[in-house]
Amino acid sequence: MPLNSAKKVKKIMKLSRYNVVKKEKENTYAFNTLHGVFAKIKTSLWEKMEAGNEAAIRAFLPAGFWVEDEADELDVYRYEYYRAVFNKETVSLVIAPTMNCNFACAYCYEKGYTLPGKMDAKVEDAIVRFLEERRDKKISIHWFGGEPLMGFDTILSISKQLTDRNIAFEAVMTTNGSLFTDAMIAQLDELCIKIVKITLGGVGKAHDERRVSKNGNPSFDAIIAAIEKIMQRTAVKINVMVTVDRTNTDVFHEVSGYLSRRFPDYMYNRIKMMVNSLFNMTDFEGSENCITEEERSQFVKNLLLEDNIAHLSQVIPKRHTICMYQWENSYTIDPSGALYNCFEQIGNPSFAVGNLLNSGIPVWQEAKAVFNDNPFDDAECRDCVLLPVCGSGCVMSKQRYRARFGNEKKDCFFFKNTFADRLPKLYELKIKKKNEGLTDFVQDC
Predict the structure, then answer these.
(1) From 433's CA, which of 213, 320, 344, 356 has a CA 20 to 30 Å away?
(2) pLDDT (tens digit per residue) in 145-188
(3) Which residues contact 9 (CB under 8 A, 6 or more apart)?
(4) Contact residues for 15 (Cβ-Cβ < 8 A; gap 6+)
(5) In a domain, 36, yes or no
(6) How far apart are CA 162 and CA 169, in angstroms?
(7) Residues 201 and 283 in one domain
């Protein structure tokens, strides 16, 4: 929603309900979660604004820290939220060509719900027909699994059919990265794959012991070799997700340091680092080492203090609208053609909401996904300053929490209670390192 121009506003104003503020002696740091704007302001000036000084207020109207008195900002977010839910301009599919995987990670949430074999031609054709009917939309495909490289021929087949029909699309792939061949890498650009997401559990032996291959062979060196070839031979970007739990809190530093030395020309432009916090989703053996949201918050805070977060994604969160669970035009498809609201449900038949080979998704299932667990039914969420960047949290996480703890435990944003304290350091890093993951609006007064 466009912000009002200060020159046009001559109405009674009020402070936005979505300002997160850290006031220090000389400077005040303010971040508005609804508009995603960030400012460092002299504390004396901020206090004038708080006191209603008209000149000070007008100076900051474009930033969204002040709004018209009659404006209901919750309604603004509600409007943006449901506009995104019913967005007809984009179609997003997570497609698993196979649920088979060559790894046996203990913490895999798909354990026990894998389907044998690969996607057959009937399901491939159904996916192509589904997208052909929506060819006027912006189409996004996320190749998933299992391990999608074990179904690479399916990826080739679907992509070729779309290309032959002049259906434009862009793709992302999540893979363990160990099965790339030179032939596969040579076709990544042709397959419209823009980003490959690869998870590492450490450097060398540490990775091989945490992310165990079923045949017992090490995989780290093969993954690094694949990353090197992808950098040299394609335009694809790589997001490296580093799995962190209570037993390996130094692993992020170790992996980022290794990759920085190995790929100095590509780090932080084509290779980006992400923390993949290990949460207990399946009560697997060893789940006692999973981290809590509070521990995750402290971990990221420590990275901040070390200046080690300049290229970490989501340093300052962007406005949350919806996740795929609630988005009308977003589905996960398993090899049988079964449809799910979320990729975390894939392969579990109890979560399937339809099948592409039958009649798709019934309307009542669509309505249930949209209106159940929406952020406006929870009083605490409605009143929270972080609602626009949290959206009331992950629907699947909330369902898991309810199953374990009942309704008394909330799945809140991991830095809910520490975000304000982080603002000075975040602002310093934004200016110092111009982190592209941060907000574009920075005002220094």
Answers:
(1) 320
(2) 999 999 999 999 999 999 999 999 999 999 999 999 999 999 99
(3) 58, 61, 68
(4) 49, 50, 65, 66
(5) no
(6) 8
(7) yes
